[in-house]
Design goal:
Blueprint: E1 4-13, E2 16-26, E3 31-35, H1 42-49, E4 57-62, E5 65-66, H2 72-78, E6 79-82, H3 94-99, H4 114-126, H5 142-155, E7 160-164, H6 172-187, E8 191-195, H7 199-205, E9 208-213, E10 216-221, H8 223-226, H9 229-236, E11 238-245, E12 248-256
Parallel strand pairs: 3-8, 3-9, 6-7, 7-8
Antiparallel strand pairs: 1-2, 1-4, 4-5, 9-10, 11-12
Length: 257
């Protein structure tokens, strides 16, 4: 089975400790949410998993091989990445942005055929973008643009999706929509690791929560195991009321520590 594995990873920069002895594994069939305050090390952990940041100690492997030993093209075929910032330099058509997901396979955005055409068509359909195919990206709403970037990632047909705050700046309806798309990607055999700040949203969609603070992994387990008042106090220094019913999780912050 495909697996991304971090083992005792440490990262230091400018004398600051960004990650310390972080160990985790990511596999297809799981949606994992990284939880923690700003500066906890979440983005650094993702960048290590993508070989965008080299650890100062520890190892990162993909399918048992050092992640840094893969070429950029090989990594792009195995892991799709949605960074925090996803600027588009010019008002390109929606269908052309989605087609960029096939770049690692040598596909041209204007002459798709065979598997490339099928992958783009499927991603467009799944993300509800067919009616927007010829629209320019500068005419889209935030929610529509978020779906475009998800479709680009899905078109790569990679075993893994790594997304850093994929629902940032979206209203609750569009947050739910994007997370539903990522959940479907996982249910269809992919593996996803996402950074989220909405704890209830993370608990609703994720199979596993990885809690981080001060560059360390504090807890790693299912929402039922790790989403507790004690955990919220330890990670965020707040008191919280947590409940779960047939509608999902609810979390109310009642005050600081």
């Amino acid at each position: 089975m495909a697996e991304i594995k971090l083992n005792n990873v440490c990262v230091e920069a400018g004398g600051a400790r960004l990650l310390h002895n972080a160990s985790a594994s990511f596999r297809p069939g799981e949606l994992i949410a990284l939880i923690g305050p700003n500066g906890a090390g979440k983005t650094t952990l993702l960048k290590c998993a993508l070989a965008l940041t080299a650890p100062s100690a520890g190892t990162v492997t993909l399918n048992g091989k050092a992640i840094a030993d893969f070429s950029p093209i090989e990594r792009a075929r195995l892991v799709s990445y949605l960074p925090q910032s996803r600027p588009l330099a010019w008002p390109v058509r929606v269908c052309d942005v989605v087609a960029l997901g096939r770049y690692a396979y040598g596909a041209s955005t204007t002459k798709l055929k065979g598997e490339d055409a099928s992958a783009v068509a499927e991603a467009m359909r799944d993300c509800g973008l067919n009616h927007l195919a010829d629209r320019r990206t500068n005419t889209l709403s935030g929610g529509e643009l978020a779906r475009v970037h998800c479709a680009r990632a899905f078109a790569a047909k990679a075993p893994f999706l790594i997304a850093d705050e994929p629902v940032a700046s979206l209203d609750p309806s569009h947050q739910f929509q994007i997370m539903t798309l990522i959940r479907a990607y996982v249910d269809n055999g992919g593996g996803a690791v996402v950074v989220l700040h909405d704890i209830a949203l993370a608990a609703r969609f994720a199979d596993r929560l990885i809690w981080m603070k001060d560059g360390e992994i504090n807890a790693n387990g299912a929402p039922e195991e790790t989403l507790t008042t004690a955990q919220m106090k330890q990670i965020f220094a707040v008191s919280a009321v947590i409940a779960k019913d047939h509608n999902g999780w609810s979390l109310t912050v009642t005050g600081d520590d």
